[in-house]
């Protein structure tokens, strides 16, 4: 069976029964979510000096940032958390969907160098398995302050080609102060706008005795953020302009079948993609088309979300995660966006949520060599006029254009 990359293992989990849960509330306070997490796991909260910008991290879940807020304990909680699965405390086959708006994964998922399939295994659901180091094993807390936490993990994992990677992961999660936010985004943030911003700096070191080469297969750092959808949420993905013959396709939109035109619009080098959690679909942006900043706008809640990554201008090798023996195993995407939804016309569904994802290049590392990928998340909540100025400066679009897209 030939199957495309399954972001979050949605199909697997639907078949295993995890996706039959009722729809969770699309809103809750940060304090509610932190209290829930602390009842079931080891949540750590980072906070700025005002106590308004806060994030919750769970070392047990690979040091993922589960959620954040710009409004203190009583503020809206922006990350999607799978309460039913966490509450059950029962691991499930294939992949454990805890949620979280910044989680560490590694690619490729499929292909001859897949990390999610054992040697010679067929590309089917039965043999698909998320490596334990990015699914069930905790990361060690190495250091922490009010605004930063550092985590480490040593592991060995093998790919489908039979090569074993001996790795060290170092993951630093830090809150970003207002001056750093303005520096990174190149635009002022009005004092009337509530903001929380954080980054994960993810370092992967080759701790083995052999180099990682194209012949052995190459891993990548893959960061995924899961957010709460609403019927009024639209993802916004700017792309590099240019002829397809020079830069390749503007978007890969056939992961789970062609995305319907009423759900994906390309206009003036910007992709508008629904983030309503009602229709399962995924898009990918290849290296020559990708820009460093993408985002989403939730008109109902007045929230502008941005995701920014440390993209390389020179790199062209990105791992390919399609479930097949590939002709271009290093011809994958840099940026992905995913909208959750019912599976194959059924009511079964993991979320609802939507995702914004970024990936490092394929990492050809000599023994002892390391590489890093930084993934940043920004949430802004305020008046439409204030958010419009930020959207213009960072995404190159007006909020009127975003609202008018669908």
Describe it:
With 406 residues, this protein is of the alpha+beta class. It has one domain: Beta-galactosidase, Chain A, domain 5 (Distorted Sandwich). 13% of the residues lie in helices and 31% in strands. The chain has seven helices and 18 strands. Strands 5-6-7-8-18-15-14-10-12-11 form a ten-stranded antiparallel β-sheet. A five-stranded antiparallel β-sheet has the order 4-9-17-16-13, with no helix packed on it. The longest helix is centred in the last third of the chain and has 12 residues, at 384-395.
Chart the SSEs and their pairings.
Elements: H1 10-16, H2 30-40, E1 44-47, E2 54-58, E3 64-69, H3 83-88, E4 103-107, E5 140-144, E6 148-158, E7 164-175, H4 178-185, E8 194-206, E9 220-227, E10 233-238, H5 244-247, E11 264-267, E12 270-274, E13 281-285, E14 293-298, E15 303-309, E16 335-339, E17 354-359, E18 370-381, H6 384-395, H7 399-404
